[in-house]
Amino acid sequence: MALAKLKDVLVPARAEKYGVGAYDFTNMEMMLGILDAAEQTKTPVIIQFPHIDEFDEIIDVFAPMMVEAAKRATVPVVLHLDHGKTFAACKKCADVGFTSVMLDASTEPFEKNVALTRQVVAYCKPLNVDVEAEIGHVGEGENLESCQYTDPDEAQRFVEETGVDALAVSIGNAHGAYKAAPKINYEVLTEIEKKVSIPLVLHGGSGISDEDFKKIIKHGIAKINIFTELTQQVKEEMDKIADTQMNMFTALGTIREGFKQRTLEKIKLFETKPV
């Protein structure tokens, strides 16, 4: 199984109406915990490295670890760049072995978003690397008013003009911790589902209710990003470590196990199908 393309994992998910979790990580223990859960359940998984401020300094170190871990896995593992901010970042990840990248130009005007995304698609396709993009703008949980709903007609046009493999949409979801319960706009999602045939992506999955998760998956959402909830898991595990004064090696194992358990919960909730 090992390394897998994004669309090879997501196309069946959308067709058969189950979700595949996409989990961000920033250290080895987090990544291994996610992979442990996928191995135990024999389900496909997407592991994501975010385009953080220190990206250029550490990606050369992290990328080989991700690639090697994926190659050793017995389940399909997609290596994905989350929220790539530049063509250079997407190019870097495509060159070092990632199987998919996301270019997030959603804050740009529509035509510029299309142009920037086309540039990434043109580079990645010959390398057999899939591309995710975003139309509309997923805001921040602390300010839900910053969200800009995806226009279904623009979504259709965007996919046709760029040739992307997956599309992140804004339907009332937001990044980070929610100050108030998010309200998913199912009218917008239903229209997008009708007009866009490729797999849809939900960002800001931490804080969405179980009921909403089950419902959005039935309406074309195939990839669900989880990050904030996982960082909260790290904090919980670090608090335990501080309270018990356990040694470093035990502490790292505790973080890994915590991530595994959170990921197992999501696999069950999303009804991800075993391979």
Q: Any key phrases for this structure?
A:
10 strands; TIM Barrel; 275 residues; alpha/beta; 10 helices; globular
Write the layout of secondary structure elements.
Layout: H1 6-16, E1 20-24, H2 28-41, E2 45-50, H3 55-72, E3 77-84, H4 87-96, E4 100-103, H5 110-124, E5 130-135, E6 139-140, H6 152-162, E7 166-169, E8 174-175, H7 186-195, E9 200-202, H8 210-217, E10 221-226, H9 228-244, H10 248-270
Parallel strand pairs: 1-2, 1-10, 2-3, 3-4, 4-5, 5-7, 6-8, 7-9, 9-10
Helix pairs in contact: 2-3, 2-10, 4-5, 5-6, 6-7, 9-10
Word description of this protein:
This protein is an alpha/beta fold and 275 residues long. The chain is 50% helix and 17% strand. The protein has a single domain (6-270), classed as Aldolase class I (TIM Barrel). The chain has an eight-stranded parallel beta barrel with strand order 1-2-3-4-5-7-9-10, surrounded by eight helices. A two-stranded parallel sheet has the order 6-8. Helix 2 packs across helix 10. The longest helix has 23 residues, at 248-270. The radius of gyration is 18 Å and the shape is globular. The termini are close together.
